[in-house]
Amino acid sequence: MALYTVLNPEEIAALVRCFGLPAPDRVKPEPKGSVNTNYHLWAGGERYFLRLNEGKTDADVLFEAEVQRYLFEARFPVPRLNVAADGRPFVPFAGKQAMLFSFAPGEEIARDAAGPARCQRLGEQLGRLHDLSAGFTAERVNPYGVPRVRGWLEDLRPDGGGDAEVRAALPVLEEELARAGDLPGAPRGLVHGDLFIDNVLWLGDRVSSLLDWEMSCVDPFAYDLGVAVNAWCYVDRYEPDRAHALLEGYRAKRRIEPETVAALYPWARYAALRFTVSRIHAFHLTGLGADRLAWKDWRRYRDRLMALRGMGDAGYRDLLGV
User: Fold this and answer.
1) How far is CA 52 from CA 5, 110, 154, 310, in A?
2) Global pTM?
3) Torsion of CA 268, 278, 27, 78, to 10 degrees
4) What are the angstrom distances between the C-alpha of 17 and each of 40, 83, 165, 182?
5) CB count, 10 Å around CB of 154?
6) What string of DSSP letters covers 195-249?
7) Residues near 60 by Cβ (< 8 Å), separated by ≥ 6?
8) What is the Cα–Cα distance from 206 to 109, expressed in whole angstroms?
9) Are residues 154 and 128 in the same domain?
């Protein structure tokens, strides 16, 4: 999330009218994240979340809408996506797609609060998601797969975009990119692809909603697990108690196939590479100010990548307890 396209009150009112709502009583921009333009708004006595998709095709948005519909009907904890008056899950605006979500109750937690108990709850929801994917039939290639990462790295050559620290990291990133060209096949299905701490809302110790399905796709479950472990189980280092708990919760809801176990380490390394490079691209070299984009430090994911490289496959399996 970010604020790339600034909408005036008249434009926002026109958009929400297409969803059958009156002009908002209150609007609050949301600068967190990196991909889209977002606003919180209050209209007709209810609270909503308006997203203007940046750089997406209609097919991208329709896939996400199908994910939301399928999971909502399966009583999986996702926000309700509102449908426009013409039946579409978005409203076209200036070549972009506006989507309107009902407000999802719950609170974000800080990284320090994401201890073993919450990691276990998160693992349970991830296991449920992957189990539900057996009935999901839509297809989408990972939009943040190796070709996208390769393109981002090409933009950083040869001098790291003028940043000495990025330039110093390029050899490792290039080596990881070459390694990612031979990622193992493994059982696959619907994955979230971006299950960070700020994409999960809580009511007490219960998961109330999983947010931001725009990166969802059909990919190996090992990739989703790698993203989640990287996000939830690393503070200043990887925390075995958190990682064990996350995998324990996952296995309480879904069996992990031997092929997925074998693929966990290489896909975790790819996930660390992907978010290192995407953060350089979206945050470190961006021209947007702090009022329109909440900055994230790419070096945090470089550090995860270096820790994974150091522990090896056996060390990663010990970390997870698999």
Assistant:
1) 8, 27, 28, 40
2) 0.93
3) -20
4) 16, 12, 48, 49
5) 8
6) --GGGEEEETTEEEEE---TT-EEEEHHHHHHHHHHHHSBSSSB-HHHHHHHHHH
7) 53, 140, 143, 214
8) 12
9) yes
CB atoms within 10 A of CB 110: 8
Q: How many domains are there within the chain?
A: 2
For 264, half-sphere exposure in the C-beta direction (CA atoms, 13 angstrom radius) is: 23
Residues 68, 128 share a domain: no
- Summarised one tens digit per residue, pLDDT across range 207-254 is 999 999 999 999 999 999 999 999 999 999 999 999 999 999 999 999
Whether 65 and 182 share a structural domain: no
Query: In this structure, which amino acid lies at residue 119?
Result: C
SS (H, E, C) 6-20: CCCHHHHHHHHHCCC
CA–CA separation, 113 and 110 (whole Å): 5
Distances (CA, A) of 39 to 6, 47, 60, 132, 233: 10, 11, 20, 30, 30
Each residue of 60-116: pLDDT tens digit?
Answer: 999 999 999 999 999 999 999 999 999 999 999 988 999 999 999 999 999 999 999
| Assigned token pair, 19 | 């969803």
Cα separations (Å) of 68 from 125, 143, 165, 177?
15, 18, 39, 32
Domain that holds residue 73: 9-102
Neighbour-count burial of 48, counting CB atoms closer than 10 A to its CB (0-12 exposed, 13-18 middle, 19+ buried): buried
